[in-house]
From TrEMBL:
Domain EIPR1-like beta-propeller span(s) in chain numbering: 7-274
Protein name: EIPR1-like beta-propeller domain-containing protein
Keyword presence, Repeat: yes
Cross-referenced SMART domains: WD40 (SM00320)
Family: Belongs to the WD repeat EIPR1 family.
Placement of WD repeats on the sequence: 224-266
Protein's organism: Micrurus corallinus (Brazilian coral snake)
Keyword Repeat part of the UniProt annotation: yes
């Protein structure tokens, strides 16, 4: 593989949302969501054949709006959630929904790389995550080790826990917590820890990182100024239960032990962009 040429896949539109097909364990497959204001947006199912070093793909139409976040179900290969923009009464709202791809595409029934996206198929809408009372959706995360029935969403200053029922066609809000403090606080992202029986979630708002216990919806830790500027992303170490990595617009990557949040375990500042 070291001697192979890099494999490049070009998209018709800009994109900033990508997710591995988590429930697929036999193939290397990713979902990519596009951002276009003028045209129907797309979900590209990208299948990497590592033996032959080639990419196969399929394209699905996501007609409801620009995709800002995409997250695949950990239990069902055909199910995923998106956060997307839509215009309502001259206002732009960011909403979230759960979708199912056509059955024949779940396990890699792909077109050749040269086929046109004009053959794109339409997604099946399973349910909306109703954010009418909570504001704009910033992201959706599935319970990592779960059966695909639990997920969280972040809407302005609300952390929302959902149960999917009736074959994922109904989303029931089972619990929530509101971020309170001075100013207009808003969650920007969140990650569900695979440890502690999946009972903990980390969120970011502005320069702060917070931990939550979803059994009680109580805050369990807060790193007030984790970064000098906006926290751009964070993730848990899958092998060490207390370790968390974060990166920010201050061009730093930091590693944290959530048992001792007074200072980062390690800080990297290798270049000037995130």
């Amino acid at each position: 593989m070291e001697d192979d040429a890099p494999v490049i896949y070009g998209l018709e539109f800009q994109a900033r949302a990508l997710s591995p097909q988590t429930a697929e364990t036999d193939a290397i497959r990713f979902l990519v969501g596009t951002q276009s204001l003028k045209y129907d947006n797309q979900i590209h199912i990208i299948d990497f054949d590592d033996e032959n070093n080639i990419i196969n793909k399929n394209v699905l139409l996501h007609q409801v709006g620009e995709i800002w976040n995409i997250s695949a179900s950990p239990a069902d290969k055909g199910v995923f959630a998106t956060c997307y923009n839509k215009t309502s009464d001259s206002k732009v709202m960011t909403c979230a929904a759960v979708w199912r791809m056509p059955k024949e595409l779940e396990s890699g029934n792909h077109e050749s790389p040269d086929d046109s996206s004009s053959n794109a198929q339409i997604l099946e809408l399973l349910c909306h995550l109703d954010n009418t009372a909570h504001g704009n959706m910033a992201g959706v995360e599935w319970e990592p080790m779960g059966d695909g029935k639990k997920l969280i969403s972040l809407a302005d200053n609300h952390l929302l826990l959902w149960d999917l029922q009736q074959s994922s066609t109904k989303a029931v809000l089972s619990n929530s917590v509101t971020l309170e403090g001075k100013g207009q606080l808003k969650f920007t992202l969140g990650k569900w820890s695979p440890h502690h029986n999946c009972s903990q979630i980390a969120t970011a708002n502005d320069t702060a990182i917070r931990g939550w216990d979803i059994r009680t919806m109580n805050q369990i830790y807060c790193i007030e100024n984790a970064h000098g500027q906006l926290v751009r992303d964070l993730d848990f170490n899958p092998n060490k239960q207390y370790y968390l990595a974060s990166c920010g617009d201050d061009c730093k990557v930091k590693f944290w032990d959530t048992r001792n949040i007074n200072e980062a375990v390690k800080t990297l500042e290798e270049h000037s962009h995130w």
